[in-house]
Amino acid sequence: MKIAIYPGSFDPITLGHLDIIRRAAACFDRVCVCVSPNAEKRNQMFTPEQKLQLVRTAVADLPNVEAELWPGLLADFAVRHHASAIVRGVRNTTDFEYERTMAATNRRLYPAVVTVMLFTPPDVADISSSTVREVLAFGRSVAEFLPRGIELENYL
Ligand code: PNS
After folding, report:
1. How far is the CA of 68 from the centre of ligand 1 (A)?
2. To the nearest 5 percent, what fractions of the chain are helix, strand and coil?
3. Is 31 in a helix, a strand, or coil?
4. Residue pLDDT, tens place only, 116-130
5. Which atom of ligand 1 is nearest the CA belonging to 10?
6. Which value, in Å, is the radius of gyration of the alpha carbons in the chain?
């Protein structure tokens, strides 16, 4: 059984995240989405429980995907789920540098796990949770950035 974890802040989950989850779910037997409360990031818009609920709604049609809140180290989440891979999405060169450092750190902490990078397709590569939050803060609809069935207005 090949298990991958897909970690992130998901504040909120976007179409870009869902694209990565769908493709990871096609590559691995099981994908465990690790929702980080990321308490150190001061600009979080949604509570950890809301973020988890949004992720679970978005992946409801994917039988081999589950989601959990995890306030600890990613490497420990990977051990807990017997994962052999950490999946991350890369949109651009800015993401790449950050991901390279994170992958190296996780390799030091847990050498048995590999980090697998998936490139975000161009049609959703401009989407980020931070731009969704910004557009939302100005009262505009963000439906086109989000997985179907997610209505953030219900959470605000
Ligand atoms: O969606 P994000 O904000 O890019 O996700 C960042 C996240 C949650 C993956 C990262 O902050 C993280 O791994 N947090 C857990 C703490 C940890 O394991 N740190 C060591 C690896 S850098």
Report:
1. 14
2. 45, 20, 40
3. strand
4. 999 999 999 999 999
5. 1
6. 15
Cis before 12 (ω within 30)? yes
Mode of pairing for the β-strands spanning 65-69 and 85-90 = unpaired
CA-nearest residue for atom 16, ligand 1, is 73
Single-letter code of the amino acid located at 145: F
Task: Write the pLDDT tens digit of every residue in 83-104.
Answer: 999 999 999 999 999 999 999 9
Q: Are strands 85-90 and 114-119 parallel, antiparallel or unpaired?
A: parallel
Q: What is the pLDDT of residue 153?
A: 79
Q: What is the pLDDT of residue 39?
A: 64
Q: Is the pTM of this model over 0.85?
A: yes
Which of 43, 44, 74 gets mutated to test ligand 1 (max ligand atoms within 8 A of its CB)? Answer: 74
Q: Any bridge partners for residue 150, and if so which? A: none
Residue 102 Cα to ligand 1 midpoint, Å, equals 8
Q: How far apart are CA 94 and CA 96, in angstroms?
A: 5
82 is catalytic: no
CB atoms within 10 A of CB 130: 12
For residue range 30-72, what is the model confidence (pLDDT) as tens digits? 999 999 997 677 778 999 999 999 999 999 999 999 999 999 9
